[in-house]
C-alpha cells in the first residue's frame, strides 16, 4: 500500500477526529482523494497521504537539513528517557494521542511503540511541511499532517492525551480537543538543558548562555495550578553521533556567530546534558 492509500485509510478509520476549518463541521466522508464535510467543503490528500490544514501562509525556520539532523540524533535515543517518562504517565488502556509540533515525527512514533496498545491512535502535526514530509518516511502507525496549533483541525474532545515537547502552547485549543479526564503532557527545558553546548557557543554575558524556563512554567501553572512537575535529567553520549548534527538540530546555532560555530565544531563534546521538566495536567 502506498503512502496516499495509507493516509486515506487512517483518516477514513478516524474520520470523526477531524473537522473542516472553513465551517468547523466534522468531516463526514472521503470521496476519491479528498475528505469532505456536510457543507461541501473538500480538502485533498497529498501524494504522501497527508492533509494540509493551514489556512494562511506560515513560515517555519526549521528547514529540511535541520530536521534531518534532528531525526538522526533522536533515533540515536536522545529523547528516549523523555518519551519513557511521558509513557509512564499514560493509562495502560488504548489512547488517542495528539503530538503538538511533531517535527520529523520520531517522539510520537517512539511513544506508540512504547505504549503497545493495538488500538492506540497517534496524530502529529507541525507547521513545517518539510518536517511532516520527513515524518511520513517513518515506519509507524502514527499519522502526520500540516496544521497550526492556534486553529486545530480536530473536533472537540477528540484526544485522551496531548504531548507537547518544546513546542508553543494554545491552552484553550488544547482543552477543547481533550476529553474530560484526558492528560496534557508538556515538556519544557530546564536551566541545564544543553548547558555544555551553550557554554561552548556563547559568552557568559550572552542571553543564550543560560536558559530560564520560569516564564513558561509560570504560565502553565497559572492555567493548571494542580499540575504535577517531574524533572528528567541525564547525560547523552555523543560519541555515537555526529557532533555537527547536534549543532544543526537545535535553534541555538541561529544565535551563534560564525567564529563560535567553527570553534565549537573543532572542539566538539563527548556528552551533553538533557535537563527538562515534564508538566502533567489532567482535565
Could you explain the architecture of this structure?
Helix 5 (129-135) links the parallel strand 5 and strand 6. This protein has helices spanning 3-13, 64-75, 80-88, 106-115, 129-135, 171-177, 195-201, 214-223, 243-249, 252-255, 258-267; strands spanning 27-31, 34-37, 42-44, 96-100, 121-126, 143-146, 159-165, 178-189, 228-237, 271-282. Helix 2 packs across helix 9 (243-249) and helix 3 packs across helix 4 (106-115). The longest helix is centred in the first third of the chain and has 12 residues, at 64-75. It is globular, with a radius of gyration of 19 Å. The protein is of the alpha/beta class and 283 residues long.
Uncertain spans = none
Strand content bin: 15-25%
The strands making up the biggest β-sheet line up spatially as 6-5-4-7-8-10-9
Number of helices: 11
* Tally of DSSP β-strands: 10
What pattern of helices and strands is seen along the backbone? HEEEHHEHEHEEHEHHEHHHE
Radius of gyration: 19 Å
Q: What is the straight-line distance between the termini?
A: 38 Å
Give the overall average pLDDT.
95
Shape: globular
Task: Tell me the major beta sheet.
Answer: 7 strands, mixed
How helix-rich are the residues, as a percent range? 25-40%
Specify the structural class.
alpha/beta
Amino acid at each position: 500500500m502506498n503512502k496516499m492509500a495509507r493516509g486515506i485509510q487512517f483518516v477514513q478509520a478516524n474520520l470523526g477526529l477531524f473537522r473542516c476549518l472553513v465551517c468547523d463541521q466534522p468531516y463526514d466522508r472521503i470521496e476519491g482523494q479528498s475528505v469532505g464535510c456536510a457543507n461541501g467543503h473538500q480538502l485533498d490528500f497529498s501524494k504522501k497521504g497527508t492533509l494540509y490544514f493551514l489556512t494562511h501562509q506560515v513560515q517555519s525556520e526549521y528547514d529540511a537539513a535541520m530536521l534531518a539532523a534532528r531525526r538522526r540524533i533522536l533515533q540515536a535515543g536522545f529523547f528516549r528517557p523523555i518519551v519513557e517518562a511521558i509513557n509512564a504517565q499514560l493509562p495502560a488502556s488504548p489512547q488517542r494521542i495528539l503530538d503538538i509540533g511533531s517535527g520529523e515525527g520520531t517522539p510520537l512514533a517512539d511513544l506508540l511503540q512504547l505504549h503497545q496498545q493495538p488500538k492506540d491512535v497517534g496524530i502529529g502535526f507541525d507547521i513545517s511541511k518539510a518536517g511532516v514530509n520527513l515524518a511520513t518516511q517513518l515506519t509507524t502507525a502514527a499519522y502526520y499532517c500540516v496544521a497550526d496549533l492556534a486553529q486545530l483541525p480536530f473536533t472537540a474532545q477528540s484526544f485522551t492525551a496531548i504531548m507537547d515537547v518544546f513546542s508553543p502552547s494554545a491552552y484553550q485549543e488544547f482543552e477543547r480537543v481533550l476529553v474530560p479526564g484526558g492528560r496534557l503532557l508538556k515538556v519544557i527545558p530546564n536551566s541545564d538543558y544543553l548547558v555544555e553546548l551553550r557554554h561552548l557557543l556563547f559568552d557568559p554575558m550572552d542571553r543564550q548562555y543560560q536558559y530560564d524556563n520560569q516564564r513558561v512554567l509560570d504560565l502553565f501553572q497559572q492555567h493548571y495550578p494542580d499540575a504535577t512537575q517531574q524533572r528528567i535529567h541525564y547525560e547523552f553520549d555523543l560519541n555515537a553521533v555526529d557532533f555537527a548534527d547536534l549543532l544543526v538540530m537545535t535553534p541555538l546555532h541561529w544565535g551563534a556567530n560564525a567564529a563560535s560555530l567553527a570553534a565549537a565544531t573543532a572542539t566538539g563534546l563527548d556528552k551533553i546534558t538533557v535537563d527538562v521538566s515534564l508538566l502533567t495536567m489532567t482535565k
